[in-house]
Write a structure and sequence with these properties.
The chain is an alpha/beta fold. The chain has 15 helices and 17 strands. The longest helix is centred in the first third of the chain and has 14 residues.
Length: 435
C-alpha cells in the first residue's frame, strides 16, 4: 500500500522589485508606509526610505516644532539605520502669520514663533544625520540669527556642512554678525555642488569693528579646524543662486583666492537684486564656457550691460526687468553681445514695467532676434505686466511680427495669482531644487 501525502500549495511570491515598485507609489502615505515597514524584513528598507528620506522641521497647526524635534530625536536614537535613510532636511524658523501653533494661540500681526535657537535637541539631531545630501535652512516671517545660536548648535551645523554627502545647501533669511561667519561656514563644505543664498544680511559683531577685508573674527578651535584644515579645498559648484544679498564683500570673497568654491564649472547661475553689477559681470566671466543657464533680475546699481560673448555654451537666458526707461536698451545691449557661435535655445524676458512708458524699442528687439546669432532659437517667451486685451499688450505683440512669424514666441501676462510674487522671481531649478 502506497501512502500519498499532499502539501498545501505555496502561495506565489511577488518579486521584490515589484514589491518595491508598489511601495514607491505610497511615498506620501505615511500611515500605510508605517504598516508596510513591519510586515516583513524585505519590505522594511523601501518603506523606511520613503518615510525618512526627507525630514521637515517647522511650525504646524497640529504639533509644535519642540515636540516634533523630541519625537524625531527619539526615533533616530532608537535605530542608527534610520539615520542613514535621511537624505534631505528642511528647517523652517518662524511661522506663517495666522498659523495656530498651540491650542487657542494664533499668531497675528508681526508675531512669529521663534524656536530654532531655543530647541536643545536640534544639535543632537543634526549630528545624527551623517548621510545628508540636501539642506534647506530658512525662515518665514522671521530671521535666523547666527549670533544667537548656542555653541553646540554652531558646531552641529558646521558638522553638517562638512559632510562629504552634502551637495545642496540653501540658506534663506539669515543674519550673520560678521561676513566672516558666513565664509567660515561655507568653508566647511567638502563636496558642495549647488548653493542658494537668499535674503542674507550682516550686522556688526560685538567687540569688533564693521567688516574689513583683512580682519576676520576670532574663531573657536572647532571653527579653525574646519576652516583652516590641513589643506585648503574648494567645492566645484555647478549651480549658484544669489538673491537679496546686501554685502559687496561677499562678491569679493566668492571671486577671490580665499573662496571655498570653484566657479570654473558653473552651469546654472541666478542673481536677483544684487546691487553690485560689476560682481555679476565678473561672475559671468568667471563661469565662461561652462555656463548653460542664466537668470538675472536687475538691482538698483548702475545697470550697464555686460558681455556674454565668452559664454558660448549658454542654452537659456531669463531676464526680469522693472525699469521702464532702461529695460529694452539693457536687453538689447546684453543680447547683442552674444557671439555668432553659441548654443542658445531659449530666451525669456519678463517686463514688470508699465507698458505705457515703453513706446519705442520693440521693433529693434524684433530685428535683433532675426539676426543669425539667434537662428538656433527654439523658444522665446515674453511676459508683459498688462491685461492681454489691453491696447499696450496688443501693440507689443504686433511689433514683434518677425519673431512671431518664426513660430517660436509665446506671450503671456504677468501678475497672475498662479505666478510667484515679486519677491520670489528667481525660479527653482529642477535639477537641484525641488519644484
Amino acid at each position: 500500500m502506497v501512502l500519498v501525502t499532499y502539501s498545501a500549495p505555496i502561495p506565489p511570491r511577488l518579486p521584490q522589485e515589484l514589491v518595491d515598485y508598489i511601495i514607491d507609489h505610497l511615498y506620501d502615505d505615511l500611515a500605510t508606509l508605517s504598516s508596510c515597514s513591519v510586515v516583513c524584513h524585505a519590505w522594511r528598507p523601501t518603506s523606511l526610505f520613503h518615510m525618512f528620506s526627507k525630514i521637515t522641521l517647522k511650525v504646524t497647526a497640529t504639533i509644535t516644532p519642540f515636540e516634533l524635534c523630541r519625537r524625531l530625536y527619539h526615533v533616530l536614537s532608537s535605530s542608527q539605520s534610520i539615520c542613514s535613510y535621511v537624505k534631505e532636511l528642511e528647517v523652517l524658523e518662524g511661522s506663517q502669520l495666522g498659523t495656530q501653533v498651540a491650542p487657542h494661540v494664533v499668531l497675528t500681526g508681526s508675531q512669529s514663533m521663534i524656536w530654532v535657537t531655543n530647541e536643545r535637541t536640534l544639535p543632537h539631531i543634526f549630528r545624527k544625520l551623517t548621510q545628508l545630501k540636501r539642506l534647506d535652512f530658512g525662515a518665514q516671517s522671521a530671521t535666523i540669527q547666527w549670533s544667537r545660536m548656542q555653541p553646540p548648535t554652531h558646531s552641529a551645523i558646521r558638522q553638517m556642512f562638512s559632510l562629504p554627502s552634502l551637495t545642496f545647501v540653501r540658506l534663506a533669511s539669515w543674519n550673520f554678525a560678521s561676513f566672516w561667519d558666513l565664509s567660515a561656514l561655507l568653508s566647511c563644505c567638502t563636496n558642495l555642488q549647488a548653493l542658494t543664498l537668499s535674503s542674507i544680511t550682516f550686522g556688526q559683531q560685538p567687540g569688533f569693528p564693521d567688516d574689513l577685508p583683512g580682519t576676520p573674527p576670532v574663531l573657536s578651535d572647532l571653527q579653525e579646524e574646519a576652516v583652516l584644515g590641513s589643506e585648503p579645498r574648494q567645492c566645484r559648484l555647478h549651480s549658484l543662486t544669489v538673491e537679496h544679498l546686501s554685502s559687496l564683500q561677499f562678491g569679493n570673497w566668492l571671486l577671490g583666492p580665499e573662496s571655498a568654491v570653484d566657479l570654473s564649472s558653473l552651469r546654472e547661475l541666478r542673481v536677483a537684486l544684487f546691487n553690485d553689477i560689476d560682481f555679476v559681470k565678473r561672475l559671468v566671466a568667471r563661469a565662461g564656457g561652462s555656463l548653460e543657464h542664466f537668470h538675472f533680475k536687475m538691482g538698483e546699481s548702475d545697470p550697464h550691460a555686460f558681455d556674454l560673448s565668452a559664454n558660448f555654451n549658454l542654452r537659456s537666458i531669463k531676464l526680469t526687468l522693472e525699469h521702464p526707461a532702461l529695460a529694452l536698451p539693457w536687453v538689447m545691449a546684453l543680447l547683442g553681445s552674444i557671439s555668432t557661435t553659441n548654443s542658445l535655445e531659449s530666451v525669456c524676458l519678463e517686463f514688470y514695467t508699465p507698458l505705457k512708458e515703453m513706446i519705442d524699442g520693440w521693433d529693434e528687439l524684433d530685428a535683433l532676434f532675426l539676426r543669425e546669432e539667434f537662428n538656433g532659437m527654439k523658444q522665446v517667451e515674453i511676459g508683459l505686466f498688462a491685461l492681454s486685451t489691453s491696447p499696450e499688450y496688443i501693440r507689443v505683440t504686433e511689433s514683434l511680427t518677425g519673431l512671431s512669424a518664426r513660430g517660436v514666441v509665446r506671450f503671456y501676462r504677468l501678475g497672475l495669482k498662479s505666478q510667484r510674487s515679486n519677491q520670489q522671481l528667481v525660479p527653482r531649478n529642477s535639477r537641484y531644487e525641488s519644484v
